[in-house]
Amino acid sequence: MKRFTIGRRGRFTAAFSTGRGLALLLLLTLSLFAAACGNEGAEGPSAEPKATKPALPPGAYEVVDARGDTVRIPTIPKRVLTFTTGADEIVLGLIKPERMIAVNEDFVDPGRSNVSALAKQVKNTIERNPTVERVAALQPDLVIVQDWIPMDKVQSLRDLGIPVVVSRTPRSIDEVRATIRLIAASLAEKKRGEALIDLMDKELIALQARLNEVPLKEKGKTVALVSIMPAYGGAGSMFDDVIRAAGGQNAKALAGNRQGQAMTKEQFVACNPDYIFLPSYNDPRTKEEIYGAEYVSDPSLSGMKALRENHLRYPWARYIYNISQNVVFGVQEAARMLYGEQFAQPPDRHLTVAE
């Protein structure tokens, strides 16, 4: 037996057999390895196995909507209904009209719609923001609403077993793309969603090429929207994004007015835009046009540059208010108001990949 002395001046000594020491060392290593393997993935002696998500029934799928809710859709929907014209246009750009059970009542009127021919192929019309009872009576298999709809109404529909997907109300062209993707996923048409976005982007690129030919001295003009919705048109609105895309500047945004804030007439005079846009349906009897005509006839506005220089413009409302893939035609409509008839277009343009 060999002896080893450890420590200063032989204070501590240890004697062991070389063979026995190696055996003890090997045993200790194996014990530590076994303990590590036994504890892998555990949270302690009382750890419970993690719950697994139940499998979806055949044909069912799920989407996460704009509120973060996971919505289960039992089967590919064939009785779709939305609460708003913007969502209707996106749906009609992705699927054929026969897969919708109702469409907004304004859409069958060609004087107020750019999709009237398609809307007339849908079985029913429905008012904007219909009641729960009205929706339930139509027995939809998918309802799409925007985020301004009260959640108690959304929950009431879900309690009836109706899948309800909440989408964002787009306030920019980028948000339109995100909304198309959500609605396409809800319809089980993701590929068509990407195709529709691609079509929209191609239109924007072609329009931008034409805008690049406009002389720089004509660009950068300030524009203010006079709308029957007084709190619409400031910074953070779709109008703000559309005007900038057309090469203009939003006078309300420059004055510090934000989306959701109404601008007083005193503030309106102070921002003194180069152009005033008054959305039109080419019918002076509509509430929109009556409101606009009364607003600009106020004597307190008579000194404004846009009025002095006769820079009142009347863009077609269905384009300038658009929040669907057809917002690209809203940009072109703004360009027509600013730069002339070289940007003229018919009132029934609609982007679709449904066919």
What features would you describe in this structure?
- The chain has 355 residues and is of the alpha/beta class.
- 38% of the residues lie in helices and 12% in strands.
- The strands form five sheets. It has a four-stranded parallel β-sheet with strand order 11-10-12-13. A three-stranded parallel β-sheet has the order 5-8-9, sandwiched between helices. Strands 1-2 form a two-stranded antiparallel ribbon.
- Strand 3 (61-64) and strand 4 (70-73) form a beta hairpin.
- Helix 6 packs antiparallel against helix 7 (190-211) and helix 7 packs parallel to helix 14.
- The longest helix has 22 residues, at 18-39.
- The relative contact order is 0.11.
- The model is unreliable at 1-18, 22-28 and 32-37 (pLDDT under 50).
Largest sheet: 4 strands, parallel
Radius of gyration: 32 Å
Helicity level, as a percent range? 25-40%
What structural class results from the helix and strand content? alpha/beta
| Average predicted local confidence, pLDDT | 89
Continuous helix count: 14
**Biggest sheet: strand arrangement:** 11-10-12-13
Shape: elongated
Produce the secondary structure layout:
Blueprint: E1 3-6, E2 12-15, H1 18-39, E3 61-64, E4 70-73, E5 80-82, H2 85-92, E6 103-104, H3 116-119, E7 125-126, H4 132-138, E8 142-146, H5 151-159, E9 164-167, H6 173-186, H7 190-211, E10 222-225, H8 238-245, E11 249-250, H9 251-254, H10 265-271, E12 275-277, H11 287-296, H12 305-308, E13 312-313, H13 317-320, H14 327-339
Parallel strand pairs: 5-8, 6-7, 8-9, 10-11, 10-12, 12-13
Antiparallel strand pairs: 1-2, 3-4
